[in-house]
Fold:
Amino acid sequence: MVIQETFEVATRGRGTHDLTREIQQRVAASGIRTGIAQLFVHHTSASLMLCENADPDVRADLERFMSRLVPDGDPLFAHDAEGPDDMPAHVRTLLTDSSLSLPISGGRCALGTWQGIYLWEHRTRGHRRRLTLTLIGE
Amino acid sequence: MVIQETFEVATRGRGTHDLTREIQQRVAASGIRTGIAQLFVHHTSASLMLCENADPDVRADLERFMSRLVPDGDPLFAHDAEGPDDMPAHVRTLLTDSSLSLPISGGRCALGTWQGIYLWEHRTRGHRRRLTLTLIGE
Amino acid sequence: MVIQETFEVATRGRGTHDLTREIQQRVAASGIRTGIAQLFVHHTSASLMLCENADPDVRADLERFMSRLVPDGDPLFAHDAEGPDDMPAHVRTLLTDSSLSLPISGGRCALGTWQGIYLWEHRTRGHRRRLTLTLIGE
Structure:
């Protein structure tokens, strides 16, 4: 059994967007009880991550860590066609994930207690981001 | 054909734990000859990696690299509820993988000669870590 | 339906190799219309990435970023059996991906407009790199 859905998320600039509830609802509605969920983002300047879901400081700390590791406007970068956050957005995407692969058990994504699913916008301005969820199982 | 198993691994504090043999045995026992294996860890402070399996210095070097890149007790981090290794464990997990997706060929994970499957505990103290292996194929 | 193919790519030393056309041709030829494509590289010193496909400066910038983050010959590393680029190649592989998981829609990998599939050779000398493409769907 293969179920595939494409949808969009409007981001509000750099930062994280919690997708956990939406993904769980889509998995539950699919009728698949056991299998694999693949979530994919069709962009190279926004990415996906699993992250601690209880303390918002964790996501703020991840943002600070990434901003220090990959500074906007770094003179190392030649590619700045869309501004000082252009190339850092590509590097951040590379260091995180364009695709999450999750187990489906009992008709839902079998996340750990503290795992949430987040879309991470790396550009300073908001964008519409397209995602595809593909579910395979029985 | 979908096979799914959940199991636990007890870690002994920060460092790597070789899962190659256990995963290969589970894949062989499943009866699936060709397909995809997904290994998932249900935590945000331990992760999975494929790594060179011959020289233990490689894993020691990875540990040193991560300790330098993401120092314990870094004042950058606000989230330190569980100690100086708390937030670094989340960052290390982000930079590595919560999920490995591997090909199954001839009834086993088709790893390269030098590829081993490792669980990487990022907290300084040992934990019980829950993993789910999902196999899809024929 | 499960289709699996193994093939080799000859790299010409450190740098990226565009696999997009080859992967799309293999997916189209498989007859699978909707599902999941898993591309896997059987090595720990070369990796896979999705990357912006329009401006070659982006890949040059990624190379410069990685060379700065993980310098060849870094005295931090004990493992240098194959030279100053040996251990950095393992770290770069860890920080990027050994496996890409992509949606198949309408008989092709549903990449975003600016997403290309690249093999990244991390050793300074060229190698023959083995890859396995596994397609599951209907």
